[in-house]
Amino acid sequence: MSAGGAGAAGPAVGLALLLLGSAAVEALEPGAPTGAVGAEAATPLPQLRAYEAPEPWRQPVAPLRIAEDTWQIGTAGLSVLLLVGDEGAILIDGGMPQAAGQVLANVRALGLAPADVKLILHSHAHVDHVGPLAGLKRATGARVLANAESAALLARGGAEDIHYGDAMVYPPVQADRLLQDGETVELGRLRLTVHFTPGHTPGSMSWSWQDRAPDGTPLRIVYADSMSAPGYRLLDNPATPASSRTIAPAWPRCARCPATCC
Length: 262
Ligand SMILES: [Zn+2]
Fold this sequence. Notes:
Blueprint: H1 10-27, H2 37-41, H3 46-49, H4 55-58, E1 64-65, E2 70-72, E3 81-85, E4 88-92, H5 100-109, E5 117-121, H6 127-130, H7 133-140, E6 143-147, H8 148-155, E7 177-179, E8 184-187, E9 190-196, E10 205-212, E11 218-223, H9 243-247, H10 250-255
Parallel strand pairs: 4-5, 5-6, 6-7
Antiparallel strand pairs: 1-2, 2-3, 3-4, 8-9, 9-10, 10-11
The protein binds zinc ion (ZN).
Zinc ion binds near residues 1, 14, 124, 126 and 226.
């Protein structure tokens, strides 16, 4: 689920997506009634069913200025951040797969061309945050940066997720550069630090940077990734036996931000 403003809805929504995928799989199990060709064609494929999302996640909104360089350009229910600097812009997250057009419309609304977006970052590689990144990479020509764990999930299009399996897939996208914990990403005056906060996904990343309020007051911003574990099996999970040990360190680390992050 969500980093930033949409985090509060994380556990319930993540569980809802998982249940949607499970219901679709159940409908296609052997032995289920089969009807005419037309009736079968009307049944969505499981991965398409998984793309369903709450209305606020698909509700367009105008760009919202958070700080001098930082904008929220996502939907009403999902955070998509755009940092606009002197040498181009950096996108963090993209929302659901169908949000690509909305994200690009908001980029243009800020007076930028898609090609002005030079870097694409993200919080974690679930469908509700990175769904349109493949399309946005094609439309902008931007480079996708990720850590190794998240890059692997991006390349699989969300498939074989250690908790959700194939229930929440999206168009795969290749990372162009692999990040190390604590590394700084720079574009002109924009400087962001990545903090690995594994737990919600093995590759979960939080981001911090300096910005300014409209009156010039310096601001320290932290875009903290989700700490939720909706429906996860943390103990004795054969797919991820170390998950109970890897999720715990992320909580105190995020609690110390922004004092130690910026
Ligand atoms: Zn998630």
